[in-house]
Design a protein that fits this description.
Elements: H1 19-22, E1 30-36, H2 64-79, E2 86-93, H3 101-115, E3 117-127, H4 134-143, E4 147-153, H5 157-163, H6 171-182, E5 186-193, H7 200-213, E6 217-222, H8 230-236, H9 245-261, E7 264-268, E8 271-274, H10 295-301, E9 305-309, E10 314-317, E11 320-324, H11 328-336, E12 342-347, H12 350-361, E13 368-369, H13 375-386, H14 392-396, E14 399-400, H15 404-408, H16 410-417
Parallel strand pairs: 1-2, 1-9, 2-3, 3-4, 4-5, 5-6
Antiparallel strand pairs: 6-8, 7-8, 10-11, 11-12, 13-14
Helix pairs in contact: 2-3, 3-4, 4-6, 6-7, 7-9
Length: about 425
């Protein structure tokens, strides 16, 4: 089953926020995360808040778009006369594209109706390659979606089987072409490396297949084995070998080499986007430098505001973070009763926010301001430059930017800098 929610204080039944959370809101970006908690099957490595048909007691997927719209109306009440239009919307899950495209369109329309969308709003959905086709993609595009992210994971069938992925090799690449034909300006492929049984040649083949499809964005994540998942149980029983940190490092270096050679640049440790005029992707650079980057994820990494709607979704506004109840049934019941579906919240202190800025912004190619560091952290940054973990040029200009070696050791660098 999905992982547990964090601890926190009770959330107000009306969802109200402290006045200080709304102060200065007009100067911050606002995004929406739309969580669609449905999957056809549960992948063996996944601990996200998702549910198969057998786990949907007391609720139906058919009602989800209407229930979601109720939370959007609640968001409008809570944020009051906040003048901001929504700059980014991201539909994640789960598998959002298990719902009819018309339902996703209605969910987006609810956000547009209550808040308005900025003229250049980025609207993304994740998609399972087997859950979409040309007609579905055309309907999404007509509804206002302009970015799509396909879960490719690997080009090798035996690797997909270990991950319990249901799509066939080659289908994600075909989806890229179908999305381009439907008019999507930006297309991402998600990859996972370090799966037990994956070889260097398997990973090279996956990178080559992904790049050959012509996306303008690639995300590549090291496989993390979460406790409670089927994959963790299989490793514990000795059915598949455990993951290996050294293998992960080697695969990351292979990804950096292949993706940069194809005209992509890293802008976050696990994300590469086509550069202006880059070779990877038909839409690369068409609407300005950095256009292929996922602006919604940048909103997370830079501590802006977002409302997460849906079961188990997390939100952040002005230093207040909260999270919804996990299961779709109590989520729907709360909204039907006129209550916030929030299960708990926390009000971040100034120190919490300082630490989170270092943790998140250090992962970006723009780096983190060294002015956020305390004396011990500043000394650690100086050592990191000497050790080849932080770039010398940005350091001299007052920013901490990871080198390639530093990206491999990002967690350790962060631990030193937050002291």
């Amino acid at each position: 089953m999905p992982s547990v929610l964090p601890d926190g204080e009770p959330a107000p039944a009306a969802g109200t926020l402290p006045p200080e959370a709304l102060a200065g809101a007009a100067d911050r970006s606002l995004g929406f995360y739309a969580h669609v908690p449905y999957c056809a099957t549960r992948c063996g490595y996944c601990d996200f808040n998702t549910y198969t048909a057998a786990e949907l007691r007391g609720t139906s997927r058919d009602d989800y778009a209407a229930t979601f719209a109720e939370e959007v109306r609640l968001a409008r009440k809570v944020l009051g006369d906040d003048p901001r239009e929504v700059e980014t919307v991201f539909f994640g899950g789960g598998t959002p594209t298990l719902l009819p495209a018309a339902d996703l369109g209605r969910m987006l329309a609810a956000i547009r109706s209550e808040f308005g969308l900025a003229a250049d709003a980025e609207v993304t959905t994740e998609a399972n390659p087997e859950s979409v086709g040309p007609a579905y993609l055309a309907e999404l595009r007509e509804a206002g979606f302009n970015r799509i992210s396909f879960g490719m994971q690997s080009a090798r069938d035996h690797v997909l089987r270990v991950l319990d992925r249901t799509h066939t090799p080659g289908r994600p690449e075909a989806c890229v072409a179908e999305a381009r034909a439907a008019g999507f300006a930006h297309v991402n492929l998600d990859l996972i490396y370090g799966t037990p049984g994956e070889t260097d040649d398997d990973w090279r083949a996956s990178l080559a297949a992904a790049l050959g499809a012509g996306p303008d964005h690639v995300s590549a994540y090291a496989l993390i084995v979460e406790e409670g998942t089927q994959l963790a149980r299989r490793i514990r029983r000795g059915e598949v070998p455990p993951t290996d940190d050294d293998v992960h490092a080697d695969r990351y270096l292979m990804a950096e080499e292949a993706l940069s050679a194809a005209g992509m640049e890293w802008y976050e440790v696990s994300n590469w986007a086509a550069t202006d005029g880059g070779a990877a992707g038909a839409g690369a650079g068409a609407d300005g430098a950095g256009a292929a980057r996922c602006r919604h994820n940048e909103l997370y990494w830079t501590g802006a505001d977002w409302w997460g709607a849906g079961p188990g979704a997390h939100s952040h506004v002005g230093g207040v973070r909260w999270w919804n109840v996990k299961h779709p049934a109590p989520y729907a019941e709360a909204l039907a009763a006129g209550r916030s579906p929030a299960a708990g919240r926390e009000v971040l202190t100034a120190e919490d926010r300082r630490v989170e800025r270092i943790l998140l912004e250090l992962r970006l190619s723009a780096g983190v301001p060294l002015s956020l560091l305390r004396p011990a952290g500043a000394e650690a940054a100086e050592r990191a430059v000497r050790d080849g973990l932080l770039e010398r040029g940005p350091y001299a200009a007052g920013r901490g930017v990871l080198t390639l070696r530093g990206r491999l050791l990002a967690d350790a660098v962060v631990r030193d800098l937050v002291d």
